[in-house]
């Protein structure tokens, strides 16, 4: 379980997160929603260690990880994807996944993969895991394609694959469904549900499409103005006046909720 305990984040004079406290339950698929600028991505950055909060604590399974660096949190089982995919455009899909694996203790994963002959056993293991991940995500037909040439949706699948290569316990998905077609969106949802149910992976996803959230999430956290406004089931928050007000001032976009 991840817990944010009275987190504050300041960017110059702007308080992006203001004493936010919430929990992401182990084994669940939690949605993190809220209007633009609510602080959702900043909260992910705090959890992943990319941003150091000005106050508050981040706990992973009860242990204070606030001072840990991103790679130490990754080692502890945390992985994330980015709103804009971070693939290596000139590497193939398979190489992208291999390059995202955890290297053996004290080694650089690029040495393991690309200095052939030195690390044969490690390279073989990373290769097998990458092939399995490609199969799992049904990317076999583009396995040797340069990642830069993929469609937006395929890049999102590669992004998920890169996160999976680190054998995480918890994956943070930042708008993984944005800008991808219905077919891939539905495939992605199936994969997330399967990884949750069969491998027990915990997910937290930032997502604007509430129908997608309701398909995937059993719990929803709503952020507004840098703090937790409310939480509950999708139905609970959909009908919550404060949520409608926070999103739209009760106005024109109400139908989308
Ligand atoms: N690096 C930064 N420097 C300065 N201000 C920032 C930075 N990152 C975020 N902010 C500001 O912090 C606030 C929260 O931003 P954040 O991106 O976390 O919101 P969000 O809920 O993820 O929004 P969206 O749904 O639009 O992605 C916003 O006012 C944003 O402009």
TrEMBL record:
Keywords of this entry: ATP-binding, Nucleotide-binding, Transport
Gene3D superfamilies to which the protein is assigned, alphabetical: P-loop containing nucleotide triphosphate hydrolases (3.40.50.300)
Coiled coil stretches, renumbered: none
InterPro entries: AAA+_ATPase, ABC_AA/LPS_Transport, ABC_transporter-like_ATP-bd, ABC_transporter-like_CS, BCA_ABC_TP_C, P-loop_NTPase
ABC transporter domain location: 2-250
SUPFAM superfamilies in the cross-refs: P-loop containing nucleoside triphosphate hydrolases
A single GO molecular function term of this UniProt record: ATP binding
Pfam families xrefs: ABC_tran, BCA_ABC_TP_C
Family, similarity comment: Belongs to the ABC transporter superfamily.
PANTHER family tied to this protein: CONSERVED COMPONENT OF ABC TRANSPORTER FOR NATURAL AMINO ACIDS, CONSERVED COMPONENT OF ABC TRANSPORTER FOR NATURAL AMINO ACIDS-RELATED
Name the record gives this protein: ABC transporter ATP-binding protein
Species in which this protein is naturally found: Roseibium algicola
